[in-house]
């Protein structure tokens, strides 16, 4: 089996896992993997992550030209914006996961860091999560807004939309996305409380010891 076919199978496997556990629904969400030649594999437009056909996953060259498979997600420009600023990243996951979207709708969150450092694993896998102001879906200027933050952040949260998370590998990107959603759930559960967060020294120690990418 070729490397591309293996990656297509892995995308379908992770997509089904995310869908089956309720982290995405309907035809929302998309996944991509960067190839060694600079091209990408991306989930197709209007595709359900729970029912992906590996052979139909889009294969694009480094210029974004479709080589085979179905037409890519209409949000492919978001992935390309992230990759353009993060040459170290090998995969990206974008979901409309419930708790992360809920956080993105709150008017009082810090737009420079939407979720405080509640757990060590959130710091290790996500770090600071900036908020990208609301744009209508498909607006190409949203790519520029993401690009402006992606160089310093492996994950961003789109207002009233959902997270985009990059990782060294597909597995790393999926794990970070799952960690973000779980921490968003904790954050919502703790609203109105005064939770004990990790302090600056603890966060710095984690970031030094466990660099993300």
Features:
single chain; 213 residues; alpha+beta; 8-stranded mixed β-sheet; 7 helices; 14% strand; globular
The helix fraction, in percent, is: 25-40%
Q: Give a count of the beta strands, DSSP E runs of length 2 or more.
A: 8
Instruction: Give the terminus-to-terminus CA distance.
Output: 28 Å
What is the approximate shape?
globular
Report the total helices.
Answer: 7
Q: Spans with pLDDT under 50 lasting ≥5 residues? A: none
> Radius of gyration, rounded?
17 Å
Strands in their spatial order, largest beta sheet? 4-3-2-1-5-8-7-6
What proportion strand? 5-15%
Pattern of helices and strands: HEEEEHEHHEHEEHH
Give the rounded overall mean pLDDT: 96
Main sheet summary:
8 strands, mixed
Structural class: alpha+beta
Describe the structure.
The protein is of the alpha+beta class and 213 residues long. Helices cover 38% and strands 14% of the residues. The protein is built from 7 helices and 8 strands, in the order H-E-E-E-E-H-E-H-H-E-H-E-E-H-H. Strands 4-3-2-1-5-8-7-6 form an 8-stranded mixed β-sheet, sandwiched between helices. Helix 2 packs parallel to helix 5 (141-150) and helix 3 crosses helix 6. The radius of gyration is 17 Å and the shape is globular. The two termini are 28 Å apart. The mean pLDDT is 96.
């Amino acid at each position: 089996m070729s490397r591309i076919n293996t990656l297509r199978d892995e995308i379908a496997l992770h997509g089904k896992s995310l869908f089956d556990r309720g982290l995405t629904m309907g035809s929302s969400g998309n996944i991509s993997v960067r190839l060694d030649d600079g091209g990408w594999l991306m989930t197709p437009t209007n595709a359900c992550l729970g029912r992906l056909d590996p052979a139909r996953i889009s294969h694009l060259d480094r210029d974004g030209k479709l080589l085979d498979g179905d037409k890519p997600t209409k949000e492919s420009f978001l992935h390309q914006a992230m990759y353009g600023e993060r040459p170290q990243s090998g995969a990206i996951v974008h979901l409309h996961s419930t708790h992360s979207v809920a956080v993105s709708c709150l008017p009082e969150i810090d737009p420079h860091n939407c979720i405080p450092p509640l757990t060590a694993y959130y710091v290790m896998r996500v770090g600071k999560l900036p908020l990208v102001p609301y744009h209508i879906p498909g607006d190409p200027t949203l790519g520029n807004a993401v690009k402006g933050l992606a160089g310093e952040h492996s994950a961003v949260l789109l207002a009233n939309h959902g997270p985009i998370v990059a990782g060294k590998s597909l597995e790393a990107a999926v794990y970070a996305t799952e960690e973000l959603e779980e921490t968003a759930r904790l954050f919502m559960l703790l609203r109105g409380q005064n939770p004990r967060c990790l302090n600056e020294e603890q966060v710095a120690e984690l970031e030094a010891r466990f660099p993300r990418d």
